[in-house]
Amino acid sequence: MTDNAPLAGKRVLLGVSGSIAAYKSADLCSRLSKLGAEVHVVMTSSAMHFVGEATMRALTRRSVMTDLFDEPHSDRIAHIDLAQSSDIVVVAPATANLIAKMAVGIADDILTTCLLAVPKSTPLLVAPAMNSLMLEHPATQHNLATLRDRGVEILATGYGVLACQDVGYGKMAEPDEIVTAINLMFSNRGDFCGKRVLVTAGPTREPLDPVRYIGNRSSGKMGYALAQAAVRRGASVILVSGPTALASPPGVELVRVQTAEQMLAECMKAAPDCNVIIGAAAVADYRPAKVADSKMKRQSGVSITIELVPNEDIIAALTSHRSPGQFIVGFAAETDNVEQNAARKLTSKGLDLVVSNDVSRPDAGFDVDTNAVTLHWPGGNSEDLPLQSKLATADHILTRIAAAMSHV
Ligand code: C5P
Predict the structure, then answer these.
(1) Which atom in ligand 1 lies closest to the alpha carbon of residue 284?
(2) Strands 158-161 and 167-171
(3) Contact criterion met (CB below 8 Å) for 157 and 95
(4) Band of the pLDDT at 75, cuts 50, 70, 90?
(5) Which of 281, 263, 277, 264 has the alpha carbon at shortest distance from 222?
């Protein structure tokens, strides 16, 4: 499990701006305080419409900074002191407005002034929260890219029904994901330094004709979370992904493919240089034997038969060409006999670890942001991980891989 001790005694500056997601920052505040962090909250005036200063004060047992001119000590400038003495700065939620101000360096209230005074060496984590159109707007995307280039860690937003009832990306990362990200910045930072990691993710699409294909329900979220977590821990990561709706995690080399054959070719090219390979893709087991050149026409009342031929097992092909010291992990998405099937895959595919999940559970597997997986090791040991965000699950898996590799 992620080591929580690194937060003990750490000074966290938590900036809260005016989004409905500000109510979640109270939970974040509570979690950080319970982990021993010294949390200093700075709120914008709009944030105070969504969550009360008294709530944050009670959760942190410290006064909350809400006014640039409220200086408790005449001999010191409070916002400069705070910005310079923090071990980490977290902005959650970060609105489009706040992100825009950060990008251009506007300092017109207590939070933006603090943010401008944060030393370059202090890690800065931003959890955006906004309507999906605002998020997708080129201005916001440009501002986020500017912050990323400056080394700011931007957390991905979640997909779902937003406060405005629109459906899309823009939900603030959950507090447990933010805590995981903060923990990582202190604890495992660097344990994958110098390591090259190959992750496969998403479904594959096996074409029947120019418009139709055989596919599956994989969203790619688990693989993308693994790639994101590995980059944060210092790895250089290549993510070979089937078609997904997900943006490339920052710092990851993303190679997009459509079919299993393309995925195999890209993986075979990348694998020899990799220390760790994780097969999280839901690769189609079969593909149509023939792909029609033009759209197949419907013939009313006539059944058709499509001949399918097997695709090569990518992860098994990678284990059979294994470079010395390579650690290879497979996934097992099962609806029944999870334990037995995972154990069989471990042996038949020559894997070092199989991560199984029961995809018949509504809160694990396809297209949800959480997962509950079991790790199966050669020799029969297994470990159930708790239900948690896919990013936290990814982090957990990487911690176990790092430990296993250090024992080789
Ligand atoms: O045999 P099964 O498809 O259940 O195995 C799942 C594991 O094998 C996953 O790690 C998946 O990415 C990998 N796999 C693969 N190529 C295939 C089929 C599965 O890499 N053709």
Answers:
(1) 21
(2) antiparallel
(3) no
(4) low
(5) 281
Q: Considering 29, 114, 164, 193, which one is annotated as catalytic?
A: 164
Question: How many angstroms separate the CA atoms of 156 and 177, rounded?
Answer: 10
Same fold, 11-187 and 196-406: yes
Q: Is the CB of 283 under 6 A from ligand 1?
A: yes
Q: pLDDT tens digit string along 253-301?
A: 999 999 999 999 999 999 999 999 999 999 999 999 999 999 999 889 9
Strands (E) in 120-249, as ranges, are 124-128, 153-154, 158-161, 167-171, 196-201, 206-207, 213-214, 236-241
Task: Kindly give the distance from the C-alpha atom of residue 231 to the centroid of ligand 1, in angstroms, as a whole number.
Answer: 23
User: Tens digit of pLDDT for each residue in 22-60?
Assistant: 999 999 999 999 999 999 999 999 999 999 999 999 999
Q: Domain 11-187 has what CATH class?
A: alpha beta
Q: What's the CA-to-centroid distance between 360 and ligand 1, angstroms? A: 18
**Is 193 assigned a catalytic role?**
no
* Residue % of the chain over a pLDDT of 70: 97
Mean pLDDT of the region 147-153: 79
Q: Is 218 in the pocket of ligand 1 (CB under 6 A)?
A: no
Atom of ligand 1 nearest to the CA of 281: 12
Ligand 1 pocket check for 279: Cβ under 6 Å = yes
Q: Is the CB of 334 under 6 A from ligand 1?
A: no
Q: Is the CB of 314 under 6 A from ligand 1?
A: yes
Q: Whose CA is nearest to atom 2 of ligand 1?
A: 332
User: Phi/psi of residue 94, each to 5°?
Assistant: -110, 115
**pLDDT tens for each residue of 194-218:** 999 999 999 999 999 999 999 999 9
Predicted local confidence at residue 27, as pLDDT = 97
Ligand 1 lined by 311 (C-beta under 6 Å): yes
Domain edges within the chain: 11-187, 196-406
Residue minimizing CA distance to atom 9 of ligand 1: 331
Q: Please tell me the distance between residue 140's alpha carbon and the centre of ligand 1 in angstroms.
A: 38
In CATH, which of 3.90.420.10, 3.40.50.10300, 3.10.100.10, 3.20.20.240 is domain 196-406?
3.40.50.10300
pTM, 2 dp: 0.71
Q: How far apart are CA 276 and CA 259, in angstroms?
A: 23
Residue 367 has pLDDT above 80, yes or no: no
- At 126, give phi and psi (nearest 5°): -125, 130
Q: Which residue has the higher pLDDT, 163 or 119?
A: 119
